[in-house]
Design goal:
The protein has about 180 residues and is an alpha/beta fold. The protein contains eight helices and six strands; from the N terminus they run βαβαβαβαβαβααα. The strands form two sheets. A three-stranded parallel β-sheet has the order 1-2-3, with helices on one face. Strands 4-5-6 form a three-stranded parallel β-sheet, with helices on both faces. α4 crosses α7 and α7 runs parallel beside α8. It is elongated, with a radius of gyration of 18 Å. The relative contact order is 0.14.
Length: about 180
């Protein structure tokens, strides 16, 4: 499992780390840094299956995504447009996210992951992905398809240029 982001209380990682005590066969890699890192490290003491990677260069993030079973997004705050799950899906990696704000919409719209409200639901989602390669493949394929169709650079550029064309046309009509 992989977490990518700022290590701050509002990102919710403190709710996920303890779950790895019950999942010794699973590994959590944490990419990022922040003011809450010392507390998270204390939370992970005695857990050999939790690894802090610190700041990771963007060129290396792709390899982390590709090597992940799933990306965990346990955010406690209302994200406007969460990048980590979208990036994960673009790399064909399922997402396990807290059911809050835009995270819910991104995961439900894409079909690229599982949502949770409680720590027990998060643990169950992690176990489901550990135990079912078919489920992982299905979620990964759905997420990758939606990321390419809705959130890729090419799609955004086409939508942006269409907006520019529309504005230019409406401007010329007004004159």
């Amino acid at each position: 499992f992989l977490f990518v982001g700022r290590l701050e209380r509002l990102k919710g990682l403190q709710d996920v780390i303890p779950l790895f005590r019950d999942l010794p066969q699973a590994r959590l890699r944490i990419a990022g840094s922040g003011t809450f890192e010392p507390e998270l490290r204390r939370c992970a003491e005695g857990l050999p299956n939790v690894e802090f990677l610190g700041e990771v260069h963007p060129s290396r993030i792709r390899d982390l995504y590709r090597g992940a079973l799933a990306v965990l997004v346990p955010s406690l705050c209302y994200e406007v447009f969460p990048l980590a799950p979208v990036e994960a899906m673009a790399h064909g990696v399922p997402v396990i996210a807290r059911r809050i704000g835009a995270l819910t919409e991104v995961v439900e719209q894409s079909g690229g992951g599982l949502l949770f409200d409680t720590a027990e639901q998060c643990r169950a989602a992690m176990r489901a992905l550990l135990d079912s390669p078919d489920l992982r493949r299905e979620l990964a394929a759905s997420g990758r398809y939606t990321a390419a169709r809705e959130w890729s650079e090419a799609v955004h550029m086409e939508r942006y240029l269409e907006l520019v064309r529309h504005l230019l046309e409406s401007r010329s009509v007004v004159r």
